[in-house]
Amino acid sequence: MILSSHRRSISRGGAMDLIFGNVVPLVLGSLGVMVLYQLLQRYRQRAYIQDAVVVITGASSGLGKECARVFHAAGARLILCGRDRARLQELVQELKEVADSKQKTYTPSTVIFDLSDTETVASAAEEILKCHGHVDILINNAGVSYRGTILNTHVDVHKEVMGINYFGPVALTQAILPSMVQRRKGHVAVISSVQGKIAIPFRSAYAASKHATQAYFDCLRAEVEQYGLEVSVISPGYIRTNLSLNAVTGDGSKYGVLDKNTAEGRDPREVAEAVLRAVGRRKKDVLLAGPLPTLAVYIRTLCPQLFFKLMASRARKEQRPKED
Ligand SMILES: NC(=O)C1=CN([C@@H]2O[C@H](COP(=O)(O)OP(=O)(O)OC[C@H]3O[C@@H](n4cnc5c(N)ncnc54)[C@H](OP(=O)(O)O)[C@@H]3O)[C@@H](O)[C@H]2O)C=CC1
Ligand SMILES: CCCCCCCCCCCCCCCC(=O)OCC(=O)COP(=O)(O)O
């Protein structure tokens, strides 16, 4: 009896030795490595953005405006683009007044142009390049959404949405790209959408433009890696902005409604911070969405038949009240 209790205490002692001698140092060591890795990542992210020349399209409102605020606070030399000179100037004034003792910040420049006019996009790109002689990071953010049934949508509306969301960013990217290739340095980011990965009913023009965006920038990433350039496709879910208010409908008129999904969407500031992290960490493809849209993306890939059924039932349900 005494012997067996002695053996038990020896084996308990052995287990304690194992835990304190091996497991605890291993766990603490791993935690330490993780913390160090995180600190290093944060340092690299800060260094990447500080002093970088960052172009943001659609900076006059919503996510673009918040991106301007967070990239400015992170020390970027901003070039803010949009159609509305007065609203961009107001933002520049606001940013000028924000002084941070810890971070060196710069007064942003502005370039005014309409993305749907590809002729002016080329001259706008020249103006952008003249600001600091080069561009480090181009963030293609501007965009417009759409509401309507395919049956009642004029083909010109599809062209309008593709013009702003697809051909505009393509024209701007291609006008700036040669200078990035020449320097063997540069980063092109684009704000796509969950709808660049799945297509939902009554969003044909918008979802098509975002799918095209995803495909174009995936091709670009593959083609420019050899020159040391980075490409990030960022795909958010609903964000609390004016996107639904500004959406176009099938006849080309403005939708003008703040949808419930948009009103209850993520805070644009939070999304802008996630964009800063994604760009700072040179992420190639980021889905910034909740569990349900993320599940929908997986179902579309792994079980397309189920996805198509779900979308058809969604279309029937959404249309019923309007028809009644
Ligand atoms: N809100 C959401 O739920 C989501 C948004 N996104 C994407 O985020 C991006 C930003 O949209 P968000 O901030 O939400 O919406 P907003 O409507 O608030 O902002 C859109 C911006 O795009 C600019 N823009 C629109 N048309 C043109 C044009 N022809 N030429 C130049 N600029 C133009 C607008 O400028 P102006 O002020 O002159 O109209 C505005 O600054 C878009 O690409 C959108 O698809 C992605 C997922 C979800
Ligand atoms: C048996 C399992 C069932 C699981 C159900 C999953 C199906 C859920 C469908 C979810 C659809 C999500 C759509 C998300 C759309 C979105 O976030 O879009 C972002 C935008 O770009 C918003 O633009 P909009 O103009 O549409 O407001």
Automatic annotation (TrEMBL):
Transmembrane segments: 20-40
Source organism, top-level taxon: Eukaryota
Biological process, per Gene Ontology: lipid metabolic process
InterPro entries in the cross-refs: KR_dom, NAD(P)-bd_dom_sf, Sc_DH/Rdtase_CS, SDR_fam
GO molecular function annotation: oxidoreductase activity, acting on the CH-OH group of donors, NAD or NADP as acceptor
PROSITE patterns: ADH_SHORT
GO cellular component: cytoplasm; membrane
Gene3D superfamilies (alphabetical): NAD(P)-binding Rossmann-like Domain
Keywords on record: Membrane, NAD, NADP, Oxidoreductase, Transmembrane, Transmembrane helix
Keyword flag Ribosomal protein: no
Keyword Lipid metabolism included in the entry's annotation: no
All copies of domain Ketoreductase, residue ranges: 52-242
Biological role stated in the UniProt entry: Putative oxidoreductase.
PANTHER family the record matches: DEHYDROGENASE/REDUCTASE SDR FAMILY MEMBER 7B, DEHYDROGENASE_REDUCTASE SDR FAMILY MEMBER 7B
Family: Belongs to the short-chain dehydrogenases/reductases (SDR) family.
Name this protein carries in UniProt: Dehydrogenase/reductase SDR family member 7B
Native source organism of the sequence: Megalops atlanticus (Tarpon)
